[in-house]
Fold:
Amino acid sequence: MEDIFLFLFGILVFGGLVLFLIKKKKITFSQKKRQFIMRHLREIESSSDKEKIIELDKILDECLQSKNISGSLGEKMKKYGKQFENENAIWNAHKLRNKLVHEIGFIPTKKESEKAISAFLQEIEKIIGE
Structure:
């Protein structure tokens, strides 16, 4: 009787550990994914502000997707919501990106671009560091 109890207890503990590790793996970044993102961030350092904003928006999308958040980037951002360091700043950055790609002739000010780039970098660095 004791052996059966110990056996069942062992299965429960082992199963719980496996589930914990599986869950943990889903929400953390692999070293490979982190290296890929960091390499891409270095590659866009010399790009124009417009290109940086567009690429950083894509990287944010990839980061949220890697956390198993589905949908468009806007939907992913809504789901991630309050976990952002500065939710308003990242939404403003995403809206600026949308203007850049959808409004003909739109040119943001240097200050707007710098704020957007800073917001993207802050959130991306936070997410890949989790």
